[in-house]
Amino acid sequence: MPMRTLWIDARAGIAGDMLCAALLQAGGDLGELQLEIDKLALPELTLHTQVVTRGAFSCLHFRVLSGEQAADASAPWQAPGAPPSHDHSHSHDHSHDHSHSHSQSQPDSAKTNPASWHAIRTRITQAGLPQGVKDRALAVFQALAKAEAQVHGLPVDQVTFHEVGAADSIADIVSACVLIEQLGITRILCTELPMGGGPVSTAHGEITAPAPATVTLLKGWPCFQDQRRGELVTPTGAALVATLATPGPMPTMRPQSCGFGAGTWNPSGWSNHVRVVLGEFDQDTTPTSVLELQTQVDDMRGEEVPALLDALFAAGALDAWSQSISMKKGRPALLLSALCRPQDRAAVSRAMLRHSTSFGLRVQVLEREVLRREHVEVQTAFGPIRIKVGWLGRDRLQASPEHQDCAQAALAHDQPLRSVYAAAQAAYRSAHPE
Question: Is residue 232 pLDDT above 50, yes or no?
């Protein structure tokens, strides 16, 4: 069956409201979204969209309005050209006016501290939202809570969200999760992210972008720095991407729709928007993004290579190998390579540099597709052996005995490895005929 894939082009920046706007323009239903947000029992929140121009592009702007703001939804909410900040009057993340108070009426579960992680978790858990929406929203807030706890040196359960605790900010995160569910998205990929810079205002005073929580959330994520200033990626945007997406370029797919979500800040010289492309992927494999780490050495002894490969696997590498190559002046050398998940980049990089003689390495993002896998145990004269089975839809394409099981059985029974391997294959064919 086709896999619904979302690709997020966030090289200009990303925030929660921007992602919501892009998803709405890509096919989300604002009326259905409002019905879901009403289930949060937040006070008089109205979702509003407006078509705006950012650079050369027509974009959608998404706002969450309180009761008094909804009466005049067309009123300007921030002067064009004003730089974004990270406090509750900023508009890169929450592109609506936060002039309403955090002490407005709340349900009993959130009266004591509506911005606490406990209160937010309780509100989302008790809401009548689809389970998939709850799971995503709670995962995003959990990531935010851990990041804030690390930054401020607090236990996670004592975290209070100053920047993302207001009712409309909760609605931003839940809205993004509702739209992902609404559009049937099963896989999300996102580009590398810009870091921005310069001073921004927060509830903790003036700090320098990127915000510490943003950096913490994006550990292992490909990021870049250019000459643009301001808070280009907010903690909410970082949490949504880091929790729900994997890094990577636009994947192979059939595009179905696209959307442009505007940030409130309208700078000159570049377009402050996030773009999404929604498409379908027909192959019944599991596509994922992985990182390939490579380095080349001409002064490393061959007997050191097995220890290096063992260290790479221990650090989390999905695969690792070496190749003989020729370097400049015809010197014989080794090309050392490893594949790993983005979250394992730091550990695998450290292992490659520590256990090789290299002074550096290269990293690139790759798309990886794997068959759906399962393990089946078969009984042989040499004991139980696991068989790794690979499926493409309903077609069984591969059935391979696990090497380690066969090697241990061969050693225990003093038999050639090929005999154990053949016995395992025969036992599998007998129990699972074509």
Answer: yes
Helix (H, G, I), strand (E, B) or coil at 6: strand
The sheet carrying 286-297 orders its strands as 319-326, 332-340, 286-297, 362-370
Q: Compute the half-sphere exposure of residue 397: CA atoms within 13 Å on the CB side of its CA.
A: 10
Burial of 224 (0-12, 13-18, 19+ CB in 10 A): exposed
Compute φ and ψ for 87, nearest 5 degrees.
-90, -175
User: Both ends of the chain: CA-CA distance in Å?
Assistant: 23
DSSP string, 171-228: HHHHHHHHHHHHTT--EEEE--EE--BSEEEETTEEEESSPHHHHHHTTTS-EE--S-
Helix ranges (H only) for 8-130 are 16-25, 30-38, 67-70, 117-126
Domains belonging to the chain, first-starting first, are 3-281 (no CATH), 288-370 (3.30.70.1380), 372-431 (no CATH)
Q: Could you write out the three-class secondary structure of 368-410?
A: EEECEEEEEEEEECCEEEEEEEEEECCEEEEEEECHHHHHHHH
d(CA 43, CA 182): 23
Higher-confidence residue of 162 and 90: namely: 162
Closest listed residue to residue 296, CA positions, set 263, 333, 259: 333
How many helical (H) and strand (E) elements, i.e. helices and strands, does the chain have?
Answer: 12, 18
What number of other Cβ atoms are within 10 A of residue 358's Cβ?
A: 17
CB distance 406 to 380 below 8 Å? no
Residue appearing with tokens 């067309």: 74
How far is the C-alpha of 142 from the C-alpha of 243, rounded, in Å? Answer: 9
Q: Are 173 and 164 in contact (CB under 8 A)?
A: yes
Mean pLDDT in residue range 24-48? 92
Q: Phi first, then psi: give them for residue 395, nearest 5 degrees.
A: -95, 125
Of 162-171, 284-293, 378-387, minimum mean pLDDT range: 162-171
Structure token pair of residue 163: 């920047």
1-21 average pLDDT score: 91
Q: What percent of the chain has pLDDT over 90?
A: 56
Q: Mean of the pLDDT values across residues 314-329?
A: 93
Beta strands in 241-285 (DSSP E): 246-247, 254-262, 273-281
Per the CB < 8 A criterion, the answer to whether 154 and 188 are in contact is: no
When pLDDT is averaged across residues 206-227 and rounded to a whole number, the result is: 87
